[in-house]
C-alpha cells in the first residue's frame, strides 16, 4: 500500500530519475575493456570545447558586442571564442564519423545518435549566427550572401540574417540554449545506455 | 510467439565481459585543461580576423560613380533588390525548388517590405533639412507620371557622369529633370555619413536592424570588389571563408560545394536547390539508424576493426 510520501510528485520524479540513470551509470568508475581507442577521446574533447565556447561567450556578453573591436583584451577573448569553436567542430566531426563507423546506434541507442546529429546541426546554426553578428566586414559579407539561400526557402521572412539584433539574440540566447540542452540529453543517453559494444565476428 | 530476428545493424548483445577502471571526472578535467591550453595557444598565435565594417560613407567616397549608379538603379527599379521578390517585394516569383516548381519564398510572402526607390533614395533625402532645391526635385519627382519619370531616367542614363571636388554632375540634362539633383544630393548625403544613420531600419536613435543599409551596399559593385580581394565571392567558396587566412566556417563546405559545380553553378535556382539538398542530407544523417542500407555501411566497410583493433586482437 503506497504511503502519502510515495505518491508525492517529488518522490516519484526522484525514483524515476534514479531508475533511469543510477549513480553508477551517471558517474561510472569502470568501463568495458573494448573501450580502448583514441577515437573515444573526441566526445569529451567536444564537450570540453563547448565549455570553452560558452565561457568565452559569457565574457564577450558581459562587455557587449562592440568591446572586442576596441580592446586588445576583448580581441583576445574573441580569438579564444573563435578557436574554441574551431576545436569544437573539429572534434565533433571526428566524434560523429567515429560513432558512424562503430554503428553506435545499435542496441536501442538510435535516439543517442539522433540527438547527437541534431546537436551538430544546431551547432552549425549557432556558429553561423555568430559569424553574422560580428559587426565587421565578415558579418556584412556573410549575411548579405547568406540571405539569398535562406530567403529562397521562405525562412528569410522570419529569420532575417541582415537584422543584427535578431541574429545576436539567436546566437547568444536561443541557439546556445538549444545546443546545451541537446548536448545534456545526448550525454545522459550515452551514460544510460553505455558505449556500444563491437560487432560480433565469427572466429575462423 | 515469434521473436524478432537479430539484425546486426540495429541490435547488439550487451557486453558482459571484462571491465577496466575508468575515472570519468579525471578524464573530463584533463580534456578541459588540454582544450583550454590549446585554445589559448591558438588564440595567442593566430588571433582572429576583424576587418573593419564598411559604410555607405566610405563607399560613396571611394567609388562615387558606382554609388551613383546604384542609387540610380534603385530609383529606376533596375537594382538587384528591385527585382528580388519575396520577402522584400513582389517583383519576381523568386526561385523554385528542384523539379517541384514550388516557389517557397513567394508562398511565404512579403514580410520585410522594401520599395527600393522610396527606401534607399526618396525617404532618406526627405529627411534633409534646409534644402529648397532638393525639396523642389523631390516634389517634381513625386508629382510626375511614370512615363515622365522614365523619360528623365533615360536622359540621365545617357548623360555622362563626372565627379569633382566632392560633387557629382550629369550632363547634359534638361532643366526640368530632377534626377541629377536627387542622385547628387544622395551622394552628398552619403559622403557626409548621414545616409548610414538614416537608413537604419526602425529610425530613431536606437536600432539593431541594418537590413536596409546592408541591402543597399550589397546592390553596388564596390562591396563585391572588396570581397573579391578577400577571396570571399561565391565562386571562391564564398561565405564559408573569412577575411585573411583563417579556417572560417569549414563545416559549411558541403553546402558551399554545390555552388561550385554544374548545374548549380549556372542555375538561377541554385540557392533553394542547395538548401533542398542539404536539408535532405541532414535528414539522412539524423535518421541513419532507421535507413536500411545506409546503416549497414559501418558493418560492410569494416572500418570498425581499426577502432576496436585491440578488442579483435584479443589484447583487451
Structural summary, described in words:
The complex is a heterodimer of chains A (204) and B (316). Chain A has 204 residues and is an all-alpha fold. Chain A has nine helices and one strand. Chain A is globular, with a radius of gyration of 21 Å. The model of chain A has no long low-confidence stretch (mean pLDDT 95). In chain B, strands 2-3 form a two-stranded antiparallel sheet. In chain B, a hairpin with a 2-residue loop joins strand 2 and strand 3. The radius of gyration of chain B is 29 Å and the shape is elongated. The two termini of chain B are 39 Å apart. The mean pLDDT of chain B is 91. The interface between A and B is large, with 93 and 105 residues.
What value does the Rg of chain B take, in angstroms? 29 Å
Cα-to-Cα separation, first versus last residue of chain A: 57 Å
Intertermini distance of chain B: 39 Å
Largest interface: A-B, 93 and 105 residues
Count the E strands of chain A.
1
Rg on CA atoms of chain A, Å = 21 Å
Short description:
The complex is a heterodimer of chains A (204) and B (316). By secondary structure, chain A is an all-alpha fold.
Topology, element by element:
The complex is a heterodimer of chains A (204) and B (316).
Chain A: H1 4-7, H2 9-20, H3 23-26, E1 30-32, H4 41-63, H5 67-70, H6 72-101, H7 110-131, H8 137-152, H9 164-193
Helix pairs in contact in A: 4-6, 6-7, 7-9
Chain B: E1 19-21, H1 24-46, H2 56-62, H3 64-76, H4 104-108, H5 116-126, H6 132-143, H7 146-158, E2 160-164, E3 167-171, H8 179-192, H9 194-198, H10 211-219, H11 222-229, H12 253-258, H13 270-286, H14 297-301, H15 304-307, H16 309-312
Antiparallel strand pairs in B: 2-3
Helix pairs in contact in B: 2-3, 2-8, 3-5, 3-8, 5-8, 6-8
